[in-house]
Amino acid sequence: MDEEYDVIVLGTGLTECVLSGVLSVEGKKVLHVDRNEYYGGDCASLNLTQLFRKFRGTETHPESLGRDRDYNVDLIPKFMMANEELVKVLIYTDVTRYIEFKLISGSMVCRKDVINKVPATVTEALASPLLGFFEKRRAKKFLEFVSGYKDDDPSTHENLDLDKHTMVEVYDHFGLDQNSQEFIGHAMALHLNDSYKQEPARETINRILLYVSSVARYGSSPYIYPLYGLSELPQGFASAIHGGTYMLNTPVDEIVRDENGKFVGVKSGDSIVKAKLVIGDPSYFKDSVKATGKVVRSICLLQHPIPNSDDTDSTQIIIPQNQANRKHDIYIACVSSAHNVCPKGFWVASISTIVETDNPSQEIEAAIQLLGPITERFDYVSETFVPLNDGDNSQIFISKSYDSTSHFVSVHEDIKDIYRRISGTELVIKKRATIEEEQAAFEAAQ
After folding, report:
1. Within 10 Å of residue 442's Cβ, how many Cβ atoms?
2. Element (H, E) at 317
3. Which segments of the protein form a coiled coil according to its record (predicted)?
């Protein structure tokens, strides 16, 4: 433990593991530490005994639930877009060699207590019950505009400047009503609330393109998910390390700083491990973060698919804020034995949203009502944190807490932001050379 490193990473949440993997691939000497005996941090996947111990204070659970080892229940479930940058990071760091992914069957949105598939193509828009007769024609024209837009071809622009015109101006240009705006903005572009409408349209258009291209890649849904739960991702990084060192079950007693507050090292027991900088989740830096709110989550074990979800083995359902009479959307992520997270005949449905009142459990009632009979239910509320500073002076780079969404859009934004602050450059994922290409380059240099 007297060795000195380029980077120390604290916590094995996905944000920390991605940064650890990328920096290791770039040749940095990385030490990755977690106080827990398992991978994943706040987004760990628990077996049945761990689940009951955490939420009920007992390891005893009904035999009717099946075998302990058949469960891998995510504390914070999230799905990936098939074409998103985070998937490219997993490929870049070789993590995909150790993990198998499966398509999430459905992507749905709730309106007036009824759930429907989110239309992602012109054909689906024309057939969707979410849209009225005349609205279908307008949505068709909008989706054709999105898929055909080219920066260097003004004939595809419809006299719109995506960097100047706001999204509400784009909606108005195509005559889209509130119903269309709701599923486009929340279920396709995955915005957390309606504030995006007043921002330049480019980000939203890019998000819609990502959604549509991800659907086109595999079929019915844009989302993929790792077999055996999200904890497989940090374990995959540990398997694919490129000179990095992982240490679980290692207490962190102190973040050592010099007289100017700059990071020196991490103290564990009697040892101090030094490094040039440290990356970690908020739980390791309680004096350097501020609370931003709370998220309520409910993990529900079901013995049936979610009613009216086409009897699929998995789905994401978004209840837009206006449908729930709230300021924030409600998310439902449902997976099943098809994803090796529970026994056959069971489904795991997880609900989440940002807390707005003094009665968090009541705030998710609209989602609970969609699930049908619930076999077991585990509710909890957690605070969310952000760093107090950018880490430039202290060389302490702290990630944000995971939000209430059931996707990784905001997580990847945080990863890119931390990388930018550390390196001063954008995170650009390049195609890595194969072993054969590296060998040929080595021989050519001799």
Report:
1. 9
2. strand 315-319
3. none
Query: Please, which residues have CB within 8 angstroms of residue 432's CB and are 6 or more apart in sequence?
Result: 25, 92
Query: Which residues does residue 101 pair with via DSSP β-bridges, in sequence order?
Result: 226
Residues whose CB falls within 8 Å of the CB of residue 47, separated by 6 or more in sequence, listed in order: 68, 69, 71, 72, 73
SS3 state at 264: strand
- Using DSSP's 3-state secondary structure scheme, residue 84 falls into coil
Round to whole Å and give the CA distance between 267 and 251: 9
Q: Are 143 and 171 in contact (CB under 8 A)?
A: no
- Is 379 buried (19+), middle (13-18) or exposed (0-12) by CB count in 10 A? middle
Q: Which two tokens stand for residue 207?
A: 């998000």
- Rounded to whole angstroms, the Cα distance separating 16 from 22 reads 10
CA distances from 100 to 119, 217, 226, 227, 377 (A): 27, 17, 6, 6, 28
Each residue's pLDDT, cut to its tens digit, for the chain (446 residues) gives 457 899 999 999 989 988 998 898 888 999 999 998 888 888 899 999 999 999 999 989 999 999 999 999 999 989 998 888 888 888 887 888 888 999 999 889 998 888 888 877 777 777 878 778 778 889 889 999 998 999 999 999 999 999 999 999 999 999 999 888 988 999 889 888 899 999 999 999 999 999 888 888 877 788 999 999 998 888 887 766 666 788 889 999 999 999 999 999 999 998 999 999 999 999 999 999 999 999 999 999 999 999 988 878 999 999 999 888 999 999 999 999 999 999 999 999 999 999 999 999 999 999 999 999 999 999 999 999 999 999 999 999 999 999 888 888 888 899 999 999 999 999 887 654 443 443 443 344 33
Q: Cβ distance 251 to 269 under 8 Å?
A: yes
Which of 332, 328, 321, 331 minimizes the C-alpha distance to 293? 328
SS (H, E, C) 424-440: CCCCCCCCCCCHHHHHH
> In the numeric block, which tokens belong to residue 378?
């585990």
Strands of the sheet with 330-336, listed across from one edge: 114-117, 106-111, 315-319, 330-336, 347-354, 289-302, 376-387
Sequence-ordered strand ranges (E) for 222-305: 223-226, 245-247, 254-257, 263-268, 271-280, 289-302
Q: Which domains does the chain have, with CATH numbers?
A: 1-44+83-100+223-288+388-446 (3.50.50.60), 57-78+294-385 (3.30.519.10), 116-218 (1.10.405.10)
- What the block records as the tokens of 346 is 């069971």
Element (H, E) at 165: none
Single-letter code of the amino acid located at 181: Q
How many C-beta atoms surround the C-beta of residue 437 within 10 A?
Answer: 11
**Taking Cα atoms as reference points, which of 215, 272, 197 lies closest to residue 82?**
215
Structure tokens that stand for 425 in this block: 């450059």
